[in-house]
Amino acid sequence: MACKGVGREFMERTRYKYLSVSAQQQGLPQPPLQAPYSGEAEPIDLPAPDEIEVPEVDLRLAIEARESVRRYAEQPLSLAELSYLLWCTQGVKGVQGTYATFRNVPSAGARHAIECYLLVNRVEGLQPGLYRFLALEHKLVAVDLEPGISAAVAKACLDQAMVQRCATTFIWVAVTERMTWRYGQRGYRYMHLDAGHVCQNLYLAAESVGGGACAIAAFSDEDMNHLLGLDGEGQFVIYIATMGKRP
User: Fold this and answer.
1) How would you label 8-17 residue by residue, b for 16+ Cβ within 10 Å and e otherwise?
2) 17 contact partners, CB below 8 Å, separation of at least 6
3) What are the residues whose beta carbons fall under 8 Å from the beta carbon of 120, sequence distance 6 or more?
């Protein structure tokens, strides 16, 4: 009953009638459009989105074929296919100064408070490990290439075997200030909605490369945040999905 009460309280306290003056309305500086990275690792170039060729798939067929896929072939993804999937889920189509980005997924007020990490198991040209996608540059940067990172992520996902058997696992992180700067506490609702938009694009885009995806909401928040070096408040893992070629 306690958890049910917390959920109801969240929905109640994030209603419009409880909103206070936002940081934007107070004239406070806007957070950056992309979370900074250390710069210690050299960014990895990805094939340019406009140069990637994928088979055309009828939208209706893609929607009707969409299902959660938990078993994957041993076939790896190509780097171009991974680049395409990142473009479909987080790709930046335009930047308005330091104010907003316009992407391939909708977001409340164009805040785009989601960052993407990848656990790579089988992608041609990439060493297995944990990476972060730099959406503004359309590049990857290595975060953790230690051999045990795949097992650690699978354990944090409550030992779901598909995390280690898929080609790659998408790990989406919410950056709270980027959304709450405009919407205050109601922004927490919007971050969860945005994560759903991103994941659905992955499901549909996976169909066009002969793959499938499976969304994961059952994971240890503390363990996942620790693995990614997140504080769990300003940034936290909000959603996860495995992806690979269909068997």
Assistant:
1) eeeeeebeee
2) none
3) 126, 127, 128, 129, 130, 131, 167, 168
For 57-60, the CB contacts below 8 A with 24+ separation are: 57/207, 57/208
Average pLDDT, the chain: 95
What are 138's two structure tokens?
A: 């359309």
**Torsions phi, psi of 181, nearest 5?**
-55, -35
Residue the block writes with tokens 């896929």: 69
Q: How far apart are CA 147 and CA 128, in angstroms?
A: 8
CATH number at residue 226: 3.40.109.10
pLDDT in tens, 58-102: 999 999 999 999 999 999 999 999 999 999 999 999 999 899 999
Q: Is residue 38 part of a domain?
A: no
Q: How many domains does the chain have?
A: 1
Position 3 scores a pLDDT of 53
Contacts of 232 (CB under 8 A, 6+ apart): 221, 222, 225
216 three-class SS: strand
Residues 114-172: tens digit of each pLDDT? 999 999 999 999 999 999 999 999 999 999 999 999 999 999 999 999 999 999 999 99
pTM of this structure: 0.95
User: What ranges make up the beta strands (E) of 121-200?
Assistant: 129-134, 139-144, 168-175
* DSSP SS3 for 105: coil
Return d(Cα 247, Cα 243) in angstroms, integer.
Answer: 12
Handedness of CA 145, 150, 156, 162 (dihedral sign): positive
Q: Which range of residues forms the domain containing residue 82?
A: 2-33+43-245
